Amino acid sequence: MRNLLVTGGAGFIGSNFVRFMLERHPDYRIVVLDKLTYAGNLDNLKDVEERFGDRYAFVRGDICDAKVVEEAIHKHDVDTIVNFAAETHVDRSITEPDAFIRTDVYGTYVLLEAARKFGLERYHQVSTDEVYGDIPEGYRSKEDDPLRPRSPYSASKAGAEHLVHAYFTTHGVPITITRGSNNIGPYQYPEKVVPLFITNAIDDEPLPLYGDGMQKRDYQYVLDHCEGIETALLKGKPGEAYNLGTGVETPNIVMAKKILDLLGKPESLIRHVKDRPGHDRRYAMDVSKIEGLGWRSHHSFDEALEATVRWYLENEWWWRKIKGGAFKEYYRRQYAERLRGSGQA
Ligand code: NAD
Ligand code: TYD
Question: What is the pTM of this model?
Answer without folding.
Answer: 0.98
